[in-house]
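Format notes (please read before filing issues)

Several people have asked whether sequences and structure tokens are stored in separate files. They are not. Every record keeps both together, in the order shown below: the sequence lines, then the token lines. Line labels are part of the format and must not be stripped during preprocessing.
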Amino acid sequence: MPTAIAVTSADLALPPQDERTMPAVVLDGLDGRPLDHALTELHAVVERHGHVVVVCSAATPEPVVRRLYTLRSLLESDRIALFRPDLPPLGVAVLARQLRQLASCDLSPGVLASAGRLLAHYIHAGAVLGSVARLDRVPVGLKAHAKSWMPGTRFAVLAHPEPQLVKAVPGATLKGPEFPTWLLLAKGQLPGDWAAGLGAQWQAQGVRETPLPAESRTWWGTGRMIEFCGHLDDLSVLYQLVTSVRQSVCHWCGLDVIGDRCVFCSAVPPVHEPATPRALEPRTPA
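Then the structure lines:
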């Protein structure tokens, strides 16, 4: 069976992008169920798929994250990877779906897991917000904080890959991707006209909509928002990106990986100190 891609809530499991997209394993309510029930469920997933990559956001409740580490420790398994990319929740959901697309290909578990760090660089994730007063994940100036208290003020924020913040007015824009993408919108309590206009600004191939993840309100600090994400969706392009990167073998667990860190064991390549030549000692004549 292909490597399983798991998420911590159902709203992070986006609909399949194509017929090859693998279904997500939803580990919902981990902190609210008895430990032995959650342990049995995760053990069954590992036994069925061999390896599991759990993708969650920085806004995932800490009790859920602690439960995940507890389960992995109790199972004493090096076949469970916990991946928390530096992306807003909608971007995390998109990245999880990209990994689900790639799970149907001939990629080893280590390469598939470490591909998440590579693909995250190609995701442009942000939101239109009714207030930035509680936004602490993107630099916000004092002037923007003051304006956020004025009724009707809206801000367009790009959190990844490069933080940007502008007032969401006609003519304003955010620097977008320099390659063809699709735009995904998740509407909260704001109209989506300005965000939908990004599709034309970024020359997107199309615009799709999805429900707003519950964790988005925590991540952005407000429910008055609409989240957006520009992303690659073609499986052949994703596969070419991943397979074009040089692979290496993790010196700790032996899995094939790309990049400088193994997602399963968190090992990085060892640093070898250059040998320092010893000073030659004078030889005493016999």
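For reference, the curators noted about this record: The domain at 124-231 is CATH 3.30.1180 (Hypothetical Protein Tm841; Chain: A;domain 3). The CA atoms of residues 2 and 103 lie 6 Å apart.
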